[in-house]
Amino acid sequence: MSEAVLKDSAADAGFSVTAARLEVSGDLRIAAVERLDRSALLQEAHDVTTIDIGGLTRIDTAGAWLLVDLHNRLSAGGKEVEIKGASDAQAQLIDVVRASMPPQDMAMPKPKTLLDQIETLGQMVTRGARKTVELTSFLGQVVATLVGILFHPRRLRLTSLVHHCQEVGLNAVPIVALMAFLIGVVLAFQGAVQLRQFGAEVFVVDLIAISVLRELGILLTAIIVAGRSGSAFTAAIGSMKMREEIDAMRTIGLDPVTILVVPRVLALMLMLPALGLIADISGLVGGAVMSWIELGVSPAVFQSRLVSNTDVWHFGVGMIKAPFFALIIGIIGCYEGMKVGGDAESLGRLTSTSVVLSIFMVIVMDAMFSIFFAIVGV
Fold first, then answer.
1. How many Å apart are CA 25 and CA 27, to the nearest integer?
2. Residue 234 in domain
3. Alpha-carbon span 75 to 341, nearest angstrom
4. Helix/strand/coil for 36
5. Which one of 100, 115, 144 terminates a domain?
6. Looking at the domain assignment, is residue 178 inside a domain?
7. Of 42, 87, 162, 260, whose CB is crowded by the most CB atoms within 10 A?
8. Would you call 295 helix, strand, or coil by DSSP?
9. Distance from chain centroid for Cα 160
10. Is 268 found in the same domain as 144?
11. Where in the sequence is the domain holding 314, given as residue range(s)?
12. In the predicted model, is pLDDT for residue 240 greater than 50?
């Protein structure tokens, strides 16, 4: 009988192969596993049918993994290999590690074919259509509740409405004003660079007025509100859903749509036009400041050209869009909050979905308004 010994002197783990028996002794912990040449050990032990670990003094999870992996590799050819000599604690650790390892026959994922991709696309379209129907149904429920409140005003939670108006509107004024001011500065600077080439610097006033009043002021305000307030709606309602507070409301006869959704949606519809007005003013001020610095257009000249050459409908178009943007943000934010399950993962996922979907739908609605106003000549 020949004997082959593989020894890790640093970690004091010994492996002795005698005939069809592998004896493991010493301290088999992570240091020994790290320094061990496993390919050499497997080559020496290819005929082994018994792994004797009665001589082990210490073993940790890494050592148990090595024994399980070695046992699986030696058993791959169909021969019977057993681990002997384990104490109760060692056997329990080995069983836990074995149960945690992935199955050996786990199939590799197949590459996706054209049919698989078509199927995936079909599933996405189906999910999108189902979500559209659910959102439309939720919108109808909210509108029906609002109509009911018109006939029974006492159902309106006025305190909650005022609170959400402050959260959605008043607290958002600084970030909206700063954003619009910087947008006006950028428009004036970039417009000056381009228009100077044609000697038409004075038209930068028209560029700023039409861009801010008609499109950018209300659009960027709606995007900020979607990221700030829409996500807050989803998180707040979703947290209540996780704690089963909404189920408790229904149990005691309270309507969650009336109590939670309607005040938030109304607050958005009331405050977004006001935020849009603030954004318009800030954007014009930023553009006027940069025009004065970059082009020498004084504030008096800027104001005169703004009043004489800017149609009031440019401002009206922006304000008409505001309630629709607010309705989209409020409905989507509350709808995603109502869909939250009992785990934190769904709360985070649906909060992100709320922001992304709200911004996407706001941009789509803005494009539809642009087409509509172009057709009617406004």
1. 7
2. yes
3. 44
4. coil
5. 100
6. yes
7. 260
8. helix
9. 28
10. yes
11. 128-376
12. yes
Tokens, residue 351:
């909060």
Instruction: Give the rounded percent of residues in the chain with a pLDDT score beyond 90.
Output: 39
| pLDDT tier, 314 (very low <50, low <70, confident <90, very high otherwise) | confident
Strand ranges in 212-322 using DSSP code E only, listed in sequence order: none
Lowest average pLDDT, out of 127-141, 221-235, 293-307, goes to 293-307
Domain of residue 35, CATH code:
3.30.750.24
Note the pLDDT of residue 142. 92
How far apart are the C-alpha atoms of 6 and 31, rounded to whole Å?
15
Give the largest Cα separation in the chain, rounded: 107
Interval 214-228 mean pLDDT: 92
pTM for the whole thing?
A: 0.71
**pLDDT value of residue 56:** 83
The distance of Cα 119 from the centroid of its chain, to the nearest Å, equals: 25
* Count of C-beta atoms within a 10 Å radius of residue 118: 10
Q: How far apart are CA 22 and CA 325, in angstroms?
A: 73
The rounded distance, in Å, linking the Cα atoms of 325 and 332 is 11
Query: Please, what is the average pLDDT of the chain?
Result: 86
Instruction: Count the neighbouring beta carbons within 10 Å of the beta carbon of residue 48.
Output: 22
Q: How confident is the model at residue 129 (pLDDT cuts 50, 70, 90)?
A: very high
- C-alpha–C-alpha distance, residues 82 and 21, integer Å: 10
Q: Given the DSSP bridges, would you call strands 13-18 and 21-28 parallel, antiparallel or unpaired? A: antiparallel
- Same domain? For 170 and 96 the reply is no
Give the pLDDT score at 106.
57
CA dihedral sign, ordered 220, 226, 227, 229:
positive
**Residue 76 scores a pLDDT above 80:** no
- C-beta separation of 18 from 47 below 8 A: no
Sequence-ordered strand ranges (E) for the chain: 3-8, 13-18, 21-28, 50-59, 82-84
Q: Is residue 114 domain-resident?
A: no
- Reduced to 3 states (helix: H, G, I; strand: E, B; else coil), residue 14 is strand
What contacts 68, CB < 8 A, 6 or more positions away? Answer: 94, 97, 98, 101
